[in-house]
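In this section we walk through a basic example: taking a raw amino acid sequence and producing a predicted 3D structure, encoded as discrete structure tokens. The instruction is simple. Fold the sequence below.
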Amino acid sequence: MENLKLLFQLYVRPAAAMSDIMDRGSWAFAAMAVLVIAIVFAATVEEKLHDAYRIPTLGEYYQPSYETTDFDSPAAEAEYKRSYENYQNAMASRSRIPIVGDSFFKFFSFDPGAFYQPLLAISIFYVPLLILLVSIFAQTGTFGIALRRDYGTLATCTLMAWAASHLPFEIVGAALYTSAVSPLVYLGIWAGSSLLFGLFVIFALRTVLGINYGMAVVTVAIGWIAFTIAMYVFQFVSPWMLSPFLLFWVIFYFGGSLGGEVRGFGNAFRQRQNFKRFLHNATVNPKDADAHVQLGLIYQHRRQDAKALEHFTKAVEIDPEEIDGNYHLGRIARENGELQKALDHFAIVVEQDDKYAVNEIWREIGVTYLDANMYNEAADALEKFVDRRPVDPEGLYYLGRTLKAQGNSDRAREMFEQAIDSVNSSPAYRQRDIRKWKKMAEKEI
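The resulting token sequence is shown next.
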């Protein structure tokens, strides 16, 4: 029943629902929901679309008996001509997909007998491709590590997304099944369910992998190719031949460890859920501030800023000197324009650890002063940071801006040039994350 609530929650609060699915969702429920909904969707919407848009073959009109027919006889030639004319008439009068025509079927299929494809395509092709794309675009680690870490969680969220996106449309399709409606209505139902699925997956990627909306949209747009690949694979390989492979994935998912060396993909998912439960249980202790900090970091990674702020605030209420809670509250306050509040939190951090977060505390203080147009204080903090982190392009950029505001154009230019050089000399895997400071520095020169 809880998983059913999570499924319906996607319609109201998709981002929060994905977070809850990460914490309490079941892969088995999601897979079963996809299979059941896919069967009904195929028997209603896709069957109507298949009947309306399928491409006829000559064999449907010309079926001679190869044992008794004399193909050189005039009667056989006349029969072939009649059959071919009927075939051409059928081809001329058949409905076609608007705009793209039969090219559509190079990428998609309406085969009602392929009800198994969504579950297999998502599990075997789509989720691994999404993780691969994000590991390439966002540099979140090697594909193998990312797959083992995120597969179970993302697969569960993606399967729930497919089930939720197709359920309302299949209900509409079933209600219209006995009515004489245009095939375009069913085509709209199919397209609507696909677009809603893509929208839900965007929220899943943002919540599970912590990427921004722009990167999630690009990943989903490219990731559709996985369903096309699956369609061609299933044309040549029976799904029942793939069943041992699926069984392997299920065993690998649920299997835990084999011989103490091979761990299932689902372990990371279960461990993540168990860790979250442990932290929530720990928050029952009124003196455990660290549990709230850890929960705040989890929600921050999932881009649930309101919940992250709530837990960081509770951590500081429990322990006003909690260093991590104050640091993150200071950053949130600065981003929200509450500059004095940010400085108050940062002051508590500096009093305890002058080198907190590899000296990044001084960069945060300097940027806060810069936002407040307190250039002398900003310069002091940023100079201290750059002395300790001389190749940090973000710190160099902000120090350049501060010096420029003070009228020290020559040294400001020097800082901008150092920021550019720092990005250029960084390893390739780092440049994707820091290249924006190069672009911003170039604009200041």
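Looking at the output, two observations stand out. Confidence is low (pLDDT under 50) at residues 256-264. The CA atoms of residues 365 and 381 lie 6 Å apart. In the next section we compare this with other chains.
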